[in-house]
Amino acid sequence: MEVRLAESAGFCFGVNRAMDKVSEQIRKADGNKKIYTYGPIIHNSEVVRDLKEKGVDIVESTDEFEKIRGQILIIRSHGVAKAVYDKAKDYGITVEDATCPFVSKIHDIVRKRGEEGWHVVIIGDATHPEVEGIVGWATGPVTVVNTEEEAETFSCNNNAKLCIVSQTTFNAQRFKHFVEIIKEKGYYTDVINTICNATAVRQSEAAEISMHADKMIVIGDPQSSNTKKLADICRSNCKDTYHIQTVRDLTGTDLQSGTCVGITAGASTPNHLIQEVLLYVRGI
Ligand code: F3S
Predict the structure, then answer these.
(1) CB of 100 closer than 6 A to ligand 1?
(2) 0.85 exceeded by the pTM?
(3) Per-residue model confidence as pLDDT tens digits over 178-205
(4) Burial profile 172-208: b = 16 or more Cβ within 10 angstroms, e = fewer
């Protein structure tokens, strides 16, 4: 039986960096300050549980800053609004910033363009923490567009110069389509494609492997939207696709009848969970 593991399976560069930052803080902890993350560091309940055992807790909003006065707060790869840094400072909280540099770059664009009088359009999901964070760096008018309808109904001051950016994980085709709709309105427009290709590479590799595999395993938290998307892509090519969280979920699964088993994993799946699955499948 051939086993193919996607090279792009698991953590992307930004998530790896954020996880390293958390490990570094745990190592450096001297017991005087407690460590918190702003929201779960990644969407993986196993990892969050493990970190809790190591003394890392989560705060969900700035409303909890009074409770963590003077402690350490790690900002995850999605980034946060400027107001979060400002409030942390007010409470004497030490911020360890693990915002992915690709996201920080968008914060800079949005801040500078606002100061220069541009109307910023962010193509993305307004309820996603990354987009909430980007909006929170705007220094002028800002609009979030997430659907075709929102692109069609978008309008602003006739003399406005538009700067369009994207949520890093937005689908490239949809981004292009929405940009075309907005451009047709005749505004002076500058488009800065800020999509990160880590997601696209992971998805196209998953598509390629699942086309040739007769069993496909996708590892990741059931709540992780990028893992669900990977599973959908794989399922469209390979009907025997299993979305699992850990190797334990493979118990009783018939993999023996496969001649080629493909494995991939979402952006928030730790490497040790991937290796466990790989060892298990190779052992069949
Ligand atoms: Fe950064 Fe791209 Fe990952 S923006 S957090 S490397 S998906």
Answers:
(1) yes
(2) yes
(3) 999 999 999 999 999 999 999 889 999 9
(4) eeebeebbebbeeeebebebeebbbebbeebbebbbe
